[in-house]
Amino acid sequence: MKRFYPYFGYLVQVKSTYLAGIAAGLVFAVASGFGMPMLVKVVFPVIFNSTSKVEEVRTVLVEQRGADEADAMLERAFPGEAESLRSSAGVRQWITERVGPEYAGTVLLIGACALIPLTALIRGLAGFLNVYFITAAGLHVLREIQQSVFVKLQRLPLGFFSGRKTGDLISRVITDSNLLQGVVTTISNDLIKQPLTLIAALSYLGWESWQSRESFFLLACLLSIPIAVLPVRLLGKRLMRKAAAMQREAGDNSAVLAETLGATREIRAFNLEEMMGKRFLDGIGRWTKFHLKVIKYRYLSPPMIEMISAGVVAVALGYAASNGFSLEKFLPLVIALYMCYDPMKKLGEIHNRLKQGEASLDRLEVILNAEEGVTDPKDPVSIPKVAGRVTFENVAFSYGDNPALNGITVDVPAGQVVALVGPSGAGKTTFASMVPRFYDPTSGRISLDGVDLRDLRLKNLRDHITIVPQEAVLFAGTIFENIKLGRMSASDDEVREAARQANADQFIAGLPEGYHTQVGERGAQLSGGQKQRISIARAFLKNAPVLILDEATSALDSEAESRIQEELADLTRGRTTFIIAHRFSTIRIADRILVFEGGKIVGDGTFQQLQEKHDLFRNLLERQQH
To answer: What value does the mean pLDDT take over residues 237-242?
Structure first.
């Protein structure tokens, strides 16, 4: 339970709602544990007039012996009932004085019957308010948990996502956080409501035991409670293991679904429908198997407790019958006993849900407790006006045990266009990714205008850097909204001017809804060249002094590439630019070329210089030309 304590803090923001729900739960508990058996004890005898003969005897005895001696005789004959008889007689006398003897019985009957729906109303209304307010608080907790996980995902280093399935992460954010919310709100509510119901029922049994010694035996029946706890604990351990397996399978199934929806063309092209369907069906089968195990262990404890309580009631019934208990005396005690065992069942369910919640918490804490890696400094430095000079000083970096950069030292003046070339895995993308601090150096220093990147706020640093990726990434929404992502404060005219600079205005104007055309998920409604022009327009709008082109035309055909080259040349003008070159068609606009091999810079010069003197560059160039 201690593991869940930090998450109860989410309830502070909605404490009024939560406490209102708890208060309603307390009313429900008292009305159930104490009110119900008391209702049976007081009302039923009045309705069925079961004590009228005894009262007649008392009336005669009072006339002959006096009230005190009459009550003493009745106490010996009917242990524990003298007090109730006195109360009943007092109520009858009070009613008789006001409505007359001919109507007293009817009024008393109507009043007794009215107590039944009144008690049910109080209990039902309290139960409804309890569920409503606790659910309202729970939805707030769910939102806060999901937001915390989502925000943490945005802060985690890119290496965290390597080898992790997108669908599994989605399952953790949605499904596992939902289960955790259930633990934090519903269970915290039941941990207050159910024990109080138990205490209220025990209080009634204790009061009855004090009134009548014969009732004391019924309290001994509660010794079965520890026996009922044992199967709950055993089942809880198994439940946690199966719940963890079920959640893993749910994550894997989400990953298969996300993978399938993201590659519909490829699946049809290679006739993979049957294979992917089998993968998904097998995963659903395994999930179903574990889900049934969870259901079995979660719902097996209530009938076990029910069976134990039924056995106890049977023993109590036999004892009561053999000792001359009247039905009206025994029935309230049975109701109170039932009210004791019902919370026990609920507490058993709480234990099982805690175990299931722990399995989800394990999966969520993989995200919540992960090292963020790249964080803001405690005392950030600001640069009044960024020129764009980028300097690497003896920089090294490794992905775990795999070195990616080693001893990189290079100074890029403001406004210079630098192309990064080299064989696959040479370190080009890692080098460029360190400029916006997607990674921090293992050793060494990277600075912008002489200021260490680690001394700048991440937001401020990235405000001065624009990235045009290899494959343009568009978000669901309109073309206008996607361009405006470059600078959210931009005016409509500035958005259209950026589109004109990217030579995108003409094709946008030809669309039926123009700038308000929906691009679809990941820009599915547009061609590759159109998506790339929108991405370039976004970069023009941002107008940052540092630009990273991750081979922004490699995903296009030759004709589309040649049309976009001019826009890229305009975009790089006056900006410190890093071009990650997989195809050499874009590097001719570069002022300088850095050649990477094995995580080191092995060549540095202009296109002509490297073509004349650098063997690796010449070999790479010849491969591109063949």
So the answer is: 72
